[in-house]
Amino acid sequence: MNARKGDEYYTPEWVYSPLGKFDADYCASDGSTIGVRNYTKSDDGLQMEWRGFVWCNPPFSNKEPWIEKMKIHANGIMLLPASVSTPWFAELASHCGHVFFVGRKVNFINGSSSNFGGTCLFPFGEDALRRLMETSLEGFLMKTEGYTPRKPLVKPTNQMTLF
User: Fold this and answer.
1) Radius of gyration over alpha carbons of the chain, in Å?
2) pTM above 0.90, yes or no
3) Structure letter (DSSP) for residue 49
């Protein structure tokens, strides 16, 4: 989603319901029923100790701390944009070993239109992977292999070299 318009976009039920029950959503909207326990922005889920099988649709403009929290917790499913050319995507896909690409556009709740770049789900732990392997959710699960990290960009200097 376009972070300049805000991050208050929430997951429609058709995305998460085929994945079974979630113990908690630490990044939930008011009135959310995704998890048995749902924590909103005012609860500050990043500062909480996560327990159980977690659903996480983080603010896309600040996804990195949520990714790190989910890596530590290692038990749940995280929804993120399918931004395959970004450095965070490749590293996370390698970390998780699999990526599920949702097979149709996700019109997020409170969004003005669909997510133009596509949506994917990352499994953290064996239960998450099993759920994605067995889901009726439209899309496909890919195993990630052969990760080669990006090389840092070489910053140009203002010095000229004469030949």
Assistant:
1) 17
2) no
3) P
